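Structure (tokenized):
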């Protein structure tokens, strides 16, 4: 569905995220026809550059990161014609009137801040005081949204001084992933699952976001953050919320976000012996985490596994196990819902029955698998075996074509003014309220994260976390 004509101002337009994700995503939506030549994209950053130089930068970014076939050059040329550039000093007065002069009346104005959070307040203030942004404009901000509760509150305050909450779009790109939204469709558009979606029928849930990449090249940033701040407080927390939340009464942004907030507020304080921290060690030919971080004594975690309890009527007694880490065997993101076994096995001791398992695969091969128990085909009598009902989206829905990047959907939602897939300020603060005591306890502890081998499934203690409950992690890859 085409969106209204817009002026999209991209602060930090020469940065890594802009070139890798934001600009290619805009191009793909343009190419598909979701917006046309009546919209404009205006790069803004401190660098002095003219329109032609910015067009060259974007053209290079599309070649490098866009995955664009050679025959798409005419579309690329039309896209480049939408671009303009303004050199703006975020903290001073320079360049703002020039930027303002490039914007048109009567179209949606979106301001995307792909810049350090320390600049959010200054830019928001300039946009408002110069009159460049009005009550209809949208402002988009990226993570990290704070590094603890106090800093997140400060960022919220800085933004809200100039913009209303319904104008602020806090991106968590995990919410834009296709299968994450399918989780909501699966739960709330099918009557099969929802009656079972509680502790009576679900034994436990495993949420895994495993990455094979290291932190090489971004060690300096990562070392101040660690897996808890970089992944758990935001991405894994959002996955947990969507899995555990009550059905909202409508798919309206605030109805959905109210339910997600309630999940975060229901989380019990996590005891420290339910949490495992890991740090990858060196392997032949490959540096260790500490080498990548540039700190031989770093205690920052590159892996976290934890057992989380959602203390409410629906989930009491059903733990959620979360894990994420770098340098693991494979890149796999999934939510695995383990159903309880049938209450009685009529097939005898030789025919053990596992419970059903529903796996929602976010990446790499997006899809949904339901593990079932069936009769082993053939003449061998009544013997049971397990079989998967598998729906891999690329195979089942080939007409869907090229998978959409999360940013494509999220940016178009900004233009449409739909905040459903964006974090509200109170959600972010609640997630920090939960995470802060854990990070604080680590800071005050003399213990170091447990080393783990690169290319494996994380530290030994992460396995024990489930073993002691009589459970096992799903293998990574
Ligand atoms: C980012 C983190 O938010 O998400 C990175 O800062 C991480 O450390 C990335 O690699 C993972 O995103 P995706 O979409 O590749 O799973």
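Design, position by position:
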């Amino acid at each position: 569905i085409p969106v209204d004509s817009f002026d999209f101002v991209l602060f930090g337009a020469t940065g890594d995220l802009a070139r890798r994700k934001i600009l290619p995503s805009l191009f793909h939506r343009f190419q598909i026809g979701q917006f046309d030549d009546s919209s404009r994209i205006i790069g803004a950053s401190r660098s002095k550059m003219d329109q032609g130089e910015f067009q060259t930068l974007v053209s290079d970014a599309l070649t490098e990161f866009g995955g664009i076939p050679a025959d798409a050059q005419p579309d690329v040329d039309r896209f480049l014609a939408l671009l303009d550039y303004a050199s703006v000093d975020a903290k001073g007065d320079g360049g703002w009137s020039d930027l303002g002069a490039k914007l048109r009346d009567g179209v949606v104005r979106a301001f995307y801040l792909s810049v350090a959070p320390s600049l959010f307040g200054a830019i928001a203030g300039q946009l408002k005081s110069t009159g460049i942004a009005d009550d209809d404009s949208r402002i988009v901000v990226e993570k990290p949204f704070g590094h603890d509760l106090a800093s997140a509150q400060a960022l919220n305050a800085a933004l809200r001084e100039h913009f209303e909450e319904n104008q602020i779009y806090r991106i968590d790109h995990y919410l834009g992933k296709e299968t994450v939204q399918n989780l909501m469709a699966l739960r709330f558009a099918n009557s099969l699952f929802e009656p079972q979606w509680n502790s009576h029928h679900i034994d436990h849930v495993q949420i895994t976001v495993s990455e094979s990449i290291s932190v090489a090249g971004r060690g300096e940033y990562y070392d101040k953050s660690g897996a808890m701040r970089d992944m758990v407080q935001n991405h894994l927390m959002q996955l947990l919320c969507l899995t555990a939340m009550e059905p909202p009464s409508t798919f309206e942004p605030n109805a959905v976000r109210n339910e997600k907030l309630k999940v975060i507020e229901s989380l019990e304080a996590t005891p420290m012996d339910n949490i495992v921290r890991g740090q990858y060690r060196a392997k032949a030919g490959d540096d260790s985490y500490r080498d990548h971080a540039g700190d031989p004594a770093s205690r920052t975690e590159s892996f976290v596994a934890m057992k989380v309890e959602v203390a409410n009527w629906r989930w009491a007694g059903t733990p959620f196990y979360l894990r994420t880490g770098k340098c693991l065997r494979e890149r796999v993101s999934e939510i695995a819902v383990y159903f309880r076994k049938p209450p009685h096995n009529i097939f005898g001791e030789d025919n053990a029955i596992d419970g059903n398992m529903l796996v929602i695969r976010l990446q790499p091969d997006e899809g949904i698998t339901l593990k079932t128990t069936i009769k082993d085909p053939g003449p061998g009598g009544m013997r049971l075996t397990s079989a998967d009902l598998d729906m891999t989206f690329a195979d089942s829905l080939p007409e869907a074509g090229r998978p959409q990047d999360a940013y494509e959907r999220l940016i178009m939602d900004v233009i449409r003014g739909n905040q459903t897939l964006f974090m509200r300020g109170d959600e972010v603060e609640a997630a920090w309220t939960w995470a802060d005591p854990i990070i604080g306890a680590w800071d005050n502890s003399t213990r170091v994260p447990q080393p783990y081998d690169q290319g494996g499934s994380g530290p030994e203690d992460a396995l024990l976390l489930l073993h002691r409950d009589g459970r096992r992690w799903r293998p990574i890859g």
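Reviewer-requested clarification: The chain has 14 helices and 15 strands. The chain has a mean pLDDT of 95.
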